[in-house]
Task: structure prediction
Amino acid sequence: MLTIAMPKGRIFEEALQLLRAAGFPLPLEFAQSRKLILTSEEAQLTFILAKPMDVPTYVEHGVCDVGIAGKDVLLEEQKDVYEVLDLKISACHLAVAGISGQTLDVVTPKIATKYPKVAAAYYRDKGEQVEIIKLNGSIELAPLIGLADRIVDIVSTGRTLQENGLVEFEKVSEITSRMIVNRASYYMKGPKIQEMVERLKEIV
Ligand code: PRP
Result:
């Protein structure tokens, strides 16, 4: 049995489709379930449905052999896991955004984000001094209510920015979901994991 951690919602639905296409017989009811642990004896897989930012933690600690997580989460969490495959699902990008036409005329601009490490590294590389403000969601609020001058956040369709009168200024990084593997599992369950990677590779 392989244990797989992944976020609830869209990534889980897309990953289920991918795994089915790769030949894993997974029940259709899985997508509708509210259970946090789902097992398919037939496919020899157990799914642990977690918060996106927690997926690399489960895998690093070895309570899950495999994880599916966005590259944004992997960049931010920097856990000690193997990244083995780009699944090319849930594509989006990380961007710097703010109020249209608003210039940065302060010495240390405030940057609101759910990704403080990624944002700090981005501005450090550019040699710009900023103050990072960590938020847990609805990041687009920050410039609208005067908490920050810019945000670093995920842009998918661009609707959230547009409907809140914000524009994208810079692209930080392209994002897709990746398959990650626990270091010990990679050796202990090598053939099983390798088979899954190969089958998924063909579909991707
Ligand atoms: C994400 C992201 C943006 C939005 C972008 O938020 O933080 O707010 O989606 O999508 P769009 O470009 O298609 O509008 P999420 O729904 O994960 O909620 P959050 O506010 O809790 O981060």
